[in-house]
Amino acid sequence: MYPPRGNLLFNSEPGRCHTQHTRGSLTLPRLPELDTFFNKDAEPFRSHRASSEDSLPDPSNILEEVYTPRTVNYGLHAVTPVAPVELSSDEEVQFADPEPIAQPVSIKRGRSHPKKAPVAASHSKIIPVVSSFTFELLLHLIKPDRPVAGKLKKTKGKATKQEPEKRGPIYVSSETDYAAFLSKIAGLVPTPVTGLCIQSFEWHFLSPATGPWLPINTEEGYQSMLGKLRKKHAKDEAYVIIQMKKPVQTIIPPTVESVIDEDETSDDDFLGPVAKKVFYIHYLLIKMLTPV
């Protein structure tokens, strides 16, 4: 079905019964609902513009409603907002002192000496090399400990240390070999070289007195001593102390009595030892008094 041309809906009369619509009819069917819709009174038009200023609420009332202090309780405790404090320009604001800041605890450490920077070797001071030199030598003969005589148990079996016998000094050249060095020591005791206690030979410098005692019982030990003396002699005079055990066999120097005893083997067998001594003394007196 197609709607008829034209608008005959508003020209229809109320209560008229409409006939069945045909294709060639120019009228539309009329319904009671449509008559009611189009015949009722129109409602006045409502504008959607914003309300005027007269219709707006008072702002002071809104602020009172929003900022009115109230108590809120959520089952914990009552919270009442604090009213702001007004201060005049003459009043001074005092704040609470801040809490002191805790200073870190300083850890005490032991005194540590700073490391010294390595000092570069000075090339201006050159130690000269000494080819040959002469050093001074002092000999100490060590005596065996002396036992303490006594009947008490405290002193029984004890011994006291004796002071060493001192010989010298003598001067020794650095060009002296080890065999000649031993001969000089033997002549200082005096004793033959075979009587020296070479295994007990030790030496050290005169200063410092607390220096270590070094062995000198071999050719290598003697050369080591000469090397150290050469370095020390380049800076200062070298003074050496040598100690050794006192030899048991020593050479006794000849005396007047030994010369008289040798004269006992002369041809004067008829004279006794006493007569020989008296005769020899008489002979010396005559020789001294006789003018030349």
Write up what this structure looks like.
- With 292 residues, this protein is an alpha+beta fold.
- Among the domains are: 1-39, no CATH class; 134-245, Phosphatidylinositol 3-kinase Catalytic Subunit, Chain A, domain 1 (Ubiquitin-like (UB roll), Roll), CATH 3.10.20; 256-289.
- It is built from six helices and seven strands.
- It has helices spanning 32-39, 59-67, 178-188, 219-235, 256-262, 273-289, and strands at residues 134-142, 146-147, 159-160, 165-173, 202-205, 214-215, 239-245.
- The strands form two sheets. The protein has a five-stranded mixed β-sheet with strand order 4-1-7-5-6, with helices on one face. A two-stranded antiparallel ribbon has the order 2-3.
- The chain is rod-shaped.
- Mean pLDDT is 68; it is low at 6-10, 256-260 and 262-271.
Oligomeric state of the chains in view: single chain
Q: State the CATH class of the domain at 134-245.
A: Alpha Beta
Distance between the termini: 203 Å
Helix/sheet category: alpha+beta
Q: How would you sum up the major sheet?
A: 5 strands, mixed
Strand ordering within the main sheet: 4-1-7-5-6
**CATH topology (fold) name of the domain at 134-245:** Ubiquitin-like (UB roll)
Topology (elements, then pairings):
Blueprint: H1 32-39, H2 59-67, E1 134-142, E2 146-147, E3 159-160, E4 165-173, H3 178-188, E5 202-205, E6 214-215, H4 219-235, E7 239-245, H5 256-262, H6 273-289
Parallel strand pairs: 1-7
Antiparallel strand pairs: 1-4, 2-3, 5-6, 5-7
